[in-house]
Amino acid sequence: MNVKKVFIFLLSFLFLTGYTVKAQVVKEADNAFRTCKYEKALAEYKKVTGKIKKNKVESRRVAYQIAECYRIMGDVKHAKKQYESLYKKNYQKDNPLLLYHLGNIVINEGNYDDALKYYQEFKKRAPEDSRADVMIASCAKAKTWKETPTRYEVFPLKKMNTRYDEWAPRWGNPDRHTQMIFTSNRDGSKGKGTDQWTGQAFSDIYISELPKSRNTEWPGEWSPVATFDDNEVINTGVNEGEACPNHKATAMYYTFCPQDKKEIKGCYIYVTTKKGKEWTEPEMVKLGPDTFNYVHPFVTGDELTIYFASNKSGGFGGYDLYKATRSKKTKPFDNIQNLGNVVNTAGNEVFPALRGDSLLYFSSDGHYGFGGLDIYYSEFVNGKYQTPENLLSPINSEADEIGIMFDDAPALDPKSKSPYVEKGYFSSNRAGGKGGDDIYYFLLRPLVYTIAGFVKDAANLQPIDGAVVEIIGSDGSSYKTKTDVKGYYKFDKDKIMGSTTYSMVTTKSGYFAENNTASQTTVGLTENTDLKQDFRLTPIPKEPIVLPEILYDLAKWDLKPQYEDSLMFVYDIMTKNPTLVVELRSHTDIRADDKYNEELSQKRAQSCVDFLVNKKGIDPARIVPKGYGEYMPRVLDRDMTVVYNRKSFTFKKGTKLTEEFINSLGSKDEKEAAHQLNRRTELYILRDDYVPGGDSIAPVAEAGQINVYRQKSIPVTISKGVVKGTCFANSKTFNFEMVPGQEIYMNYTEATRFLKDHIILAKDFEAKNAAINEEDGTIIENSVLILHDFNLGDNEAQNVKVIVKKGLTSSFLVGEDFLKSQFGNFTVDKAQKAIVFEK
After folding, report:
1. In the structure, what pLDDT confidence band is assigned to residue 8 with cuts at 50, 70 and 90?
2. Which of 200, 247, 348, 620 has its Cα between 20 and 30 A from that of 107?
3. Measuring CA to CA, how many Å separate 521 from each of 479, 482, 492, 501, 502?
4. Burial of 351 (0-12, 13-18, 19+ CB in 10 A)
5. CA dist 196 to 69, 74, 362, 616, Å?
6. CA 582/CA 823 separation, integer angstroms
7. What pLDDT shows up at residue 417?
8. Rounded to whole angstroms, how far apart are CA atoms 822 and 64?
9. Which residues, listed in sequence order, are joined to residue 488 by a DSSP beta bridge?
10. Which conformational region is residue 215 in: left (phi greater than 0), alpha (psi within -120 to 50 degrees), or beta?
11. Measuring CA to CA, which residue among 823, 817, 758 is closest to residue 791?
C-alpha cells in the first residue's frame, strides 16, 4: 500500500460497505477492492462489465468502482474519463460523491470555474456534507491567492528526484541537519513485484548527505542517494515510509504497512533503535486498536510526545491528527488526544511536523486551499490551536503538497548577500516534476532596502560635495553620511530595515536649511527596493535679499504694524537656519542730503531689528542694523514693474538706479517710480557659522572696488591677424578674441567655473534647467547663456546671449558684427594696437 495516500482508503471503504445489493458475478472484484487490492480489483471489474450490461444499476456501480480504482491508484486521467462518462448518465443522482471527486480532479487541473460548478451541484445533492462549503469557498480564494503569490521561491531538488515518487523529507540527524531521509518507490526498493494497492513498486526509506565542506550555495551538493538500511531491518519487501528520528538519531519512528498474499493488514507506526551501527528489530508503537491505520509519525527530540495521523473512530473526518505523550522513553505512549476541530476537518489532515514548541505544520484537503493537499500551520497559544494558515502559492499548488521541513542553519543569499529569512524542503506531485511526487526546496530571500540619492545646488544644479545626510528611523536608529564629489550618498542594506519610516535631513555650510528634509518608508514594501531621495539645497546668496515692501511716514522711522509681516520673512529664515548671522540694511532714495539720509536709514534699520529682537526673540548677536542712505543704488536682478499714480513703469533687468539714470527719465511719475525702487530694506547674510552663547559678530570686510574703463579705445594685441583683448562679463575680467559674425562664444571651462561659483545660475540659461545635465550637473554644450552684462571699456551691453562652447582658444570669441550692433562702428588701429570706436 502506498503510505502516502493511505487516508483515501477509509472513504472508499465506507462507500463500498454501504452498498448492500451486489451481483454475485462481481463478488471477487468487490472483495479485492475491500482489501485494498486495487490493481486486482480494477482487472476484475473490467472482466465483468460485459456480463452485467442488462443490469443498469449494477453496471453503473461497477463503472463507478472502476473510476475509484483509477483515482486511488493515482491514474487521474482514466479516473476523470470514467467519472465524466457516469456524469453524462446522471449517476450523481444515485451517488453525489461522483460530483465531489470530479470537482477535486478539475480543481487539481487549476480549473476553478468548472470545479465550482461540480461543488455547487454536490452541495445541492448532499447539503449535509460540510466539505462542499469548504471547496466552494476555496475556488474563489485560490483564484485570488494565485494572483498574489508570496515571496517564497520554489525549485526542484533535482538530484533527489526520479521518474518514480519521492516524498516526505525529514532530517536524518535533527541536531546537525546534514542528512536528509525521505521515502521513494524508485528502482532498487527492497520489495519484489508491485504494490497491490497502486500497481507500483513498494516504497523504502532513503538517505542523502551533505559533504563536510559546505562552501557551495544553499541547498548545497547532496551526496548520491542510498538506501537507509541495507540489512533489511527497516526497509523490507513491503511499504515503509515517513520516517522521523529522535534528536540524536538513535531512534527511528516510521510508517510500516505489513501485508501478505491474502490481505493488506493496514499501516502502523514502528520504532527501531540504533545499537552501534545496527538497527534493532522494529516494534509497533501501540496507539489504538489495530483495525485502524496510524501513520506519518513526528516525534519530539526527547521522544516523550508523538504526533501522527489516524482514521480511528471518533474523529472529525477521514484522517485526523493526534498526539500521544508518555513520562519516560521506556514507557508506552498514552494520553492519546485528538488535536481538535480547529485543526481537524471533515476532510483529511496528515503529515504533521512540529517546528519549535508551538508551530504545527501539516497537510490537509479539508481547509480552504488550492485543491488536493495543501500545507498549513497552526500556532499553539494558551493551550489552544489557532486557525490554520495556508502557506499559499508558490509552496502550495492545485496538486498535493506534503511533508515540509525547515533548514534553520545560517546561509547567505548570493543575490542580497544577506542571510535567508527562511528555507527548507517539502514534496509535491505538481505538474512539471520529474516523476510523480518530487522533493522541492523553498527559500525566502531577505527584503533588502537602500536609500540613496544626489544632493545638488538648487540654483546651478551642481553636485554638492561634503553635504551631511542624516536619517532617523522610527525604530530609534540613526545614521549619518556625507556626499562624495558627485553629490552622491547612500545608506546600504545594513542600515535600512523593513517596516521602518525614516526622517531625513541634509545640511551644508553656505546653504539654507530649507527643502532639506524628507521622509522615506519601507512599511508595506514587499520587494527589494532601492529608495531614491534627491535634495536640492538653496544657496545662501552673496547679494542682499530685498524684503517685501516696508513703507514709512515722511522723515519717520517708526515701523508700522501693517509692515511687521514683511519682516516675518527674515524671522522664518533665521529660525530655520539658527547658525546665520545677518545684516539688515536700509536704503533711501537720492533726495535730501547725504548725512540726513544716512541717519534716517540707520534709524529705520534699527526699528526693524528691534522688532525682530524684542518681539520675535531673535538673538541680538545674530543681527546687525545698517543704514546705507543713498550710497548703494539698486541694480535690478529682473524686470520690474512699478505702479505709481495709476501708471505702470517697467525697468529692465540689470538697470542700475543711479542719480544720473533717474534724472534721465522722461516724466516726474517715472522718476518717482524709480525712487520707490531705491527705497528698500534688504537682508544680507554675513556668515553661517554662529554658535549660540559667547559668539560675537565678526567685522564685515569691505567690498572690493571694481575698476571702470573710461575710454573709447580698447588696447589689444594683434598676432597673425588675430585681434585679442580684455573684456568684462558679469563684472569679471576675461580675454577675448575677435572673430567674424554676430555670435559670442564663451569657453566651456569659464562657463562651468561661473556656474560652480554662483556667478551664473541655471535660470540664466535660455533653456533654464534643461541646459544642465541632470546626472552630473555639467553644462550641455552649445547651450545659450544670458550674461547680465558684457563690457568693452566703457561700452556696456546688458542681457547678452553667448553660446557655451568647448575647445575655444580664448575665454570669449566675440563677433565683429556684435560689436558694431551694440557699440557702434570701430576700426582696428594696428599701429596703436587698439580697437577705436567712433565718437
Report:
1. very low
2. 200
3. 15, 21, 14, 4, 6
4. buried
5. 11, 13, 27, 96
6. 41
7. 86
8. 105
9. 454
10. alpha
11. 823
* Average pLDDT value for residue range 799-807: 95
CA 153 vs. chain centroid, Å, equals 16
- Rounded Cα gap, residues 592 and 567, in angstroms: 26
Taking the C-alpha atoms of residue 262 and residue 31, their distance in angstroms, rounded to an integer, is 11
CB-CB contact of 585 with 605 (8 Å): yes
Amino acid at 285: V
User: What is the predicted pLDDT for the residue at 416?
Assistant: 86
Question: Cis (ω within 30 of 0) for the bond into 127?
Answer: no
d(CA 682, CA 680): 7
838 pLDDT exceeds 90? no
Q: What is the separation of C-alpha 361 from the centre of its chain, rounded to a whole number of angstroms? A: 28
Quick check: 815 and 737 in contact, CB under 8 A? no
Cβ contacts of 578 within 8 Å, gap of 6 or more: 690, 692
Q: What are phi and psi of 334, to 5 degrees?
A: -140, -160
All cell numbers assigned to 426:
517539502
Q: Can you read off the three cell numbers belonging to residue 44? A: 476484475
Range list of β-strands (E), 62-132 = none
In angstroms, the CA 605 to CA 26 distance is: 116
Q: What residues are paired with 717 via a beta bridge?
A: 724
- Tens-place pLDDT, residues 32-69: 898 888 889 999 999 999 899 899 999 999 999 999 99
> Contact, 36 vs 197, CB < 8 A?
yes
**Sign of the CA dihedral running 340, 345, 349, 355:** negative
First to last CA, the chain: 118
> Strand pairing of 529-532 and 449-457?
parallel
- The DSSP code for 425 is E
What is the distance between the alpha carbons of residues 18 and 82, in angstroms, rounded to a whole number? 21
- The predicted structure's pLDDT at residue 707: 27
Output the average pLDDT for the chain.
90
Distance CA 690, CA 698 (A): 10
Amino acid in the structure at residue 445: R
CA distance 15 to 632: 107
Place of cell 472508499: 12
Q: Please tell me the distance from the alpha carbon of residue 562 to that of residue 460, in angstroms, as a whole number.
A: 36
Distance of CA 320 to the CA centre of its chain: 40
Q: Which three cell numbers, joined as nine digits, stand for 361?
A: 505544520
pTM for the full predicted model: 0.69
C-alpha cell at 125: 445533492
Contact (Cβ atoms closer than 8 angstroms) between residue 344 and residue 376: no
* CA gap 774, 768 in Å, rounded: 12
Tell me the one-letter amino acid at 227: T
- CB-count exposure of residue 34 (10 Å: 0-12, 13-18, 19+): middle
Peptide bond into 625 cis (omega under 30): no
Q: C-alpha distances in angstroms, 804 versus 648, 766, 808, 811?
A: 36, 11, 10, 10
Measured in degrees and rounded to the nearest 5, phi and psi for residue 234 equal: -95, -55
B/e letters for 398-432, b = 16+ CB within 10 Å, e = fewer, are bbbbbbbbbbeeebebeeeeeebeebbbbbbbbee
Residue pair 4/437 in contact by the 8 Å Cβ criterion: yes
Give residue 337's pLDDT.
97
